[in-house]
Specification:
alpha+beta, Nucleotidyltransferase, domain 5, five-stranded mixed beta sheet, three-stranded antiparallel beta sheet, 39% helix, globular
Length: 306
């Protein structure tokens, strides 16, 4: 059963102590009861240090071991409030906004929390897109002079994939790629879209090899008035993503961290219907995924050693 606060008052009441936060994380990590990661035993006892001791193999496990809360100097209470703040903000949160909302001592702390939580927004083993999927590319970056269109300088290339859901948009995926080469675009599609899906693209030759990898490719007709293909779902998703970056992040996104921002936008977009009913549902999903996401230190992120 999904358990999550629906209002700030409920959050404050449910998670008034770090121990309450740990109890909640325990239920997320072991919904059917403790299971030793090493031997699979279900018998355990809790040590004086709050660790879970397997009674078969003797392995000690912390509830936050190996995940984004590990080794943090911040209490779990602060992490829970950070997750809530991010999820209730319709357009997301900046590091400066998070620092002010939580009264954090430094911008760096807020920035690191946000990047770890953004990494948690990608569920390990998540389902790929399926059915009919539009695929197109767009650029993300500051205003540059010079060449426009494919080959524009100084911008990051992002592949956008959007499922058709009747006349609307289903789920989306977005991925940074180094180039428009056949290998780069194909690899992006294979990581985002199930084999056997129908891929709808423009006439770019780099997509010609898709049929050899189990996809059916359809080339969308060109709109003569706009002089571009009617990949309306991709165009809308890309437009919303760019507006989000400008509105939430003031358009300041480095190429090195762009994928993290794309992940956050995708997380929000794909849960737009449930979020409209309850922002607490986003909080619940983020807490779930955080239990499966390894911690990234400041040096690891800034060195791009991902």
């Amino acid at each position: 059963m999904e358990d999550y606060p629906k209002t700030l008052a409920e959050l404050e009441k449910q998670f008034a102590t770090d121990e309450a936060c740990r109890t909640y994380l325990y239920a997320l990590r072991w919904p059917d009861g403790f299971v030793c990661h090493k031997c699979g035993c279900r018998r355990m006892t809790i040590t004086a240090a709050g660790l879970y001791l397997c009674l078969d193999c003797g392995r000690k496990t912390s509830i936050i071991q190996g995940i984004i809360f590990q080794d943090s100097h911040l209490p779990l209470l602060t992490w829970f409030r950070a997750m809530w703040h991010i999820c209730v903000q319709k357009n997301g949160a900046s590091a400066l906004g998070l620092q002010r909302a939580l009264g954090l001592g430094s911008y760096r702390t807020a920035w690191l929390m946000l990047h770890n939580l953004r990494k948690a927004m990608v569920r390990p083993g998540r389902d790929k897109l399926s059915g009919e999927v539009e695929v197109d590319e767009t650029y993300v970056g500051g205003v540059k002079t010079g060449k426009r269109g494919r080959g524009a300088e100084g911008k990051s290339i992002v592949v956008v994939a959007a499922e058709k859901d009747g006349k609307g948009i289903g789920r989306i995926r977005m991925m940074c790629v180094p180039s428009f080469s056949s290998d780069d675009l194909r690899n992006a599609i294979r990581s985002m879209v199930e084999e056997g899906a129908t891929i709808i693209t423009d006439g770019l030759n780099s997509y010609n090899s898709l049929s050899r990898y189990g996809y059916t490719r359809i080339i969308e007709e060109t709109d003569e008035e706009l002089d571009e293909c009617r990949l309306s779902r991709c165009h809308l998703a890309a437009s919303l993503m760019k507006r989000w970056i400008i509105g939430t992040l003031q358009g300041s996104v480095s190429h090195e961290h762009l994928q993290d921002y794309l992940n956050e936008f995708t997380f929000r977009f794909n849960r737009r219907k449930s979020a409209s009913a309850s922002r607490g549902k986003l909080f619940y999903r983020l807490a779930q995924y955080a239990m499966e996401t390894e911690v990234f230190t400041y040096s690891k992120i800034t060195k791009h050693n991902l």
